[in-house]
Every structure is written in structure tokens, then in C-alpha cells.
Write a structure and sequence with these properties.
This protein is an alpha/beta fold and about 350 residues long. The chain has helices at about 15-30, 40-50, 55-60, 80-90, 155-170, 190-205, 215-225, 235-250, 295-310, 310-330, 340-350, and strands spanning about 5-10, 35, 65-70, 95-105, 120-125, 135-140, 150, 180-185, 210-215, 230-235, 260, 275-280. The structure holds nicotinamide-adenine-dinucleotide, 3-isopropylmalic acid and manganese (II) ion.
């Protein structure tokens, strides 16, 4: 028997490069891992026309977790792989929590200049199954001057409440116990009102958590000027997507930003499905195949995965190895490629 049965989807571009390093580091923690690699992404699409066959999806449901590199390729029209593969997995496996820590590690250079690790330490809880990502909308008179395109944001009381509750739980477990709803209630009055009322109602059950609200435009400014304002941020799918690339930038760059598409249900319960861990970044066609991509985000996503699977000690070993590597990077780190960084972190985990 194995500790972890893992499905691996390297995907496109730098996906396979960074996933290879993530798997090396995982191997170094000494767990019994049975991993199966799935050929999904642009190459498969060109070869067979398939993005995510139903039978493959059914198989993926049987794993403990999924590790994904990235999907999307310039040779495929935008949205095909993103919607039919990545978003379909998030929706079908009910990954309603898209967990994206924004954490500045000691020694890491940030565009904020003066910022210290205690200034940039938050978790963005991005809703993962609704919002504008749900795909509602359509187009009329396409290609004519009268073309009309609509793209609606789906927000259900059920979907908002469950992610808000998750965010309150996370906030209650952190020292600062602060939750900030980020939305655009001044313009998106229907959806914003739903989010605000639910946060307000649920907050009554968490008297120890300070609740705050910030419009998304102002939040973007405060991420840069006053990141200390934020502890746990809860927000909708699209705002969370945008804010977490910004979050990655303030915490040292997109090559360091980890994420988990989490289904928080109890293992064995009806609604359980494997969670999926992936770097925040994409397939980076501009540097793909050159061995330049930073695998650190994927390695930290592996640590998140272990934490999620109830293996916090192993997760902490990986995080510590990354933290140690990042301190050294400032001085000796320049010039290392994907494999060198992966190798160095693996060595540190092995000890
Ligand atoms: P991107 O994140 O792929 O790249 C943005 C910039 O960051 C590029 O300059 C890239 O070289 C750099 N970068 C990204 N990851 C890096 C790493 N690990 N190390 C060093 N530099 C890194 O975003 P994009 O260019 O907007 O999108 C490219 C493709 O990826 C698109 O098809 C998009 O749909 C897809 N995408 C997929 C995911 C995902 O699978 N989760 C996420 C984002 C984008
Ligand atoms: C991300 C990506 C995806 C998203 C795309 C590729 C569908 O940008 O994981 O952040 O928008 O969620
Ligand atoms: Mn994104």
C-alpha cells in the first residue's frame, strides 16, 4: 500500500519542466508515492482532438491528489485547453477553494523595496467554481459591427457561503484573525450584495475574527502600498485570479507562487474528490523548453499538497528547504536553471 496515489498532469510549455522538479523533491521526503502521468494538453489535443476524455476524468477521481504543471499553448485557440481541461477539472472535482498564499520569504527581493516577511503574509481564498468562470453568456451577430458579447458572473448563495466559511475558518486559525472581503459592491451590486450579506451573516459565528471590506481596485493598490492590511482575503474567481498574480509579484515573483485547488470535503464523504495542486503561473511559452523556468512554485505546491493530505511534517520539510534555498539565492543563486534549483532543493530535503 502507498501513502499517496498521485495523478500527474504536466501539461504544456514549462509545465513538464517544473513538474519534474516537484516530483524529485516529493521523492526526497521518502513517502511511498505511486504516481501516474496523464498526457493531457496541447500535444494530445493536436493528436486526437481530445482535451479531457470522460473516462480519464473518471480515473482521475480515484487518486488522492493531482499535481498539475500548466495548460495553454499558442498553437491552440485561447480558452480551449483552459476551459475544457483546467477549468473542467476544477468544476467537476468541485475545487471551490482556490487557495493562494501570498507570503514573502526571508531574503527574497520584492518590488516593494522595504517590505519584510511580516509585511507580506496573507492567504487569498479565491472562489474556484463560479463567477465569470462559470461560462454563462453568449455572442450575437458575431463578426459584424453590431456584435454583442455577454459574459455573466454566476454567484450562488450556496457557492459563496461555503467558500466564505472556509475563509473564516482559516482566518480564525491565524494569529491576526482578520478576514477581508474583496469585491466591487459599488458597481457589481447584485453579486457584491450577496457576498457582503453572506460575509456579514457568517461573521456573527466568528466573533474572534475581525472582518473588513475592500473594493478590488483599492485592494490592488493596498497590495502594493500596504500589504500588511491583509491576512485572509476572500474574493470571487476573477478578482482572485488577478489579485494573485499581483500577490505573486509582491512576494518575489510568479516563479514562487503556489496554489491548491481544494475540495475541502472529508475523505470518504459523498462530495469528496481529489484536490489539485499547481503553480499560479501558466505555461510560459516565452521561456518553454529552455530550462529557465523557476520550479519553486511547483515545489511549494507539492508542500501544500502534503499538508492537505495530512502530512504536515513532510510539507514543513519541503517548505524549510525552499526557505533555505531562497535565503542563499540572494547571494549565490544567480544563473541557476530549472534543474539546478530543483536539484539544490532536493538535496536540502534529503539533508
Ligand atoms: P504565464 O504565467 O505563463 O507567464 C507570464 C510571464 O511570467 C512570462 O513572461 C513567463 O515567462 C513568466 N513566468 C511564468 N512562470 C515562470 C516561472 N516558473 N519561472 C520564470 N518565469 C515564469 O502567463 P501568460 O503568459 O499569461 O499565459 C501563458 C499561457 O499559460 C496561456 O495559454 C494561459 O492561458 C496559460 N495559463 C495557464 C495557467 C494554469 O495552467 N494554471 C495559469 C496561467 C496561465
Ligand atoms: C490561473 C490561470 C487560469 C485561471 C486560466 C489558465 C484558466 O490564470 O490558474 O490563475 O484564470 O484560473
Ligand atoms: Mn491566473
Amino acid at each position: 500500500s502507498h501513502d499517496i496515489r498521485l495523478a500527474v498532469i504536466p501539461g504544456d510549455g514549462i509545465g513538464s519542466e517544473v513538474v519534474a522538479e516537484g516530483l524529485k523533491v516529493l521523492d526526497a521526503v521518502g513517502l511511498k508515492v505511486e504516481s501516474t502521468t496523464y498526457d493531457l494538453g496541447a500535444a494530445r489535443y493536436h493528436r486526437t482532438g481530445e482535451t479531457l476524455p470522460d473516462a480519464t476524468l473518471a480515473e482521475l477521481r480515484e487518486y488522492d491528489a493531482i499535481l498539475l504543471g500548466a495548460v495553454g499553448d499558442p498553437s491552440v485557440p485561447p480558452g480551449v485547453l483552459e476551459r475544457e481541461l483546467l477549468l473542467r477539472l476544477r468544476f467537476e472535482l468541485d475545487h471551490y477553494v482556490n487557495l493562494r498564499p501570498v507570503k514573502l520569504f526571508p531574503g527574497v527581493a520584492t518590488p516593494l523595496g522595504e517590505a519584510r516577511p511580516e509585511d507580506v503574509d496573507m492567504i487569498v481564498v479565491r472562489e474556484g467554481t463560479e463567477g465569470p468562470y462559470a461560462g454563462a453568456g453568449g455572442v450575437m451577430r458575431r463578426g459584424t459591427p453590431q456584435e454583442i458579447a455577454t459574459q455573466e458572473s454566476l454567484n450562488t448563495a450556496f457557492g459563496v457561503e461555503r467558500v466564505v466559511r472556509y475563509a473564516f475558518d482559516r482566518a480564525a486559525a491565524r494569529p491576526r484573525k482578520k478576514l477581508t472581503l474583496v469585491h466591487k459592491t459599488n458597481v457589481l451590486t447584485y453579486a457584491g450584495d450577496l457576498w457582503a450579506r453572506i460575509v456579514d451573516r457568517v461573521s456573527a459565528e466568528y466573533p474572534e475574527v475581525t472582518t473588513d471590506y475592500c473594493h478590488v481596485d483599492a485592494a490592488s493598490m493596498f497590495f502594493v502600498t500596504q500589504p500588511r492590511r491583509f491576512d485572509v482575503v476572500v474574493t470571487d474567481n476573477l478578482f482572485g485570479d488577478i489579485l494573485t498574480d499581483l500577490g505573486a509579484a509582491i512576494a518575489g515573483g510568479i516563479g514562487l507562487a503556489a496554489s491548491g485547488n481544494v475540495n475541502p470535503a472529508r475523505p470518504g464523504s459523498q462530495s469528496w474528490a481529489p484536490s489539485m495542486f499547481e503553480p499560479v503561473h501558466g505555461s510560459a511559452p516565452d521561456i518553454a523548453g529552455q530550462g529557465k523556468a523557476d520550479p519553486t512554485a511547483t515545489i511549494l505546491s507539492v508542500a501544500m499538497m502534503l499538508d492537505h493530505l495530512g502530512l504536515p511534517k513532510e510539507a514543513a520539510r519541503i517548505e524549510q528547504a525552499v526557505a533555505d534555498d531562497l535565503v542563499e539565492r540572494r547571494t549565490a543563486g544567480a544563473g541557476r536553471g530549472t534543474r539546478e534549483i530543483g536539484h539544490d532543493i532536493t538535496e536540502r530535503v534529503t539533508g
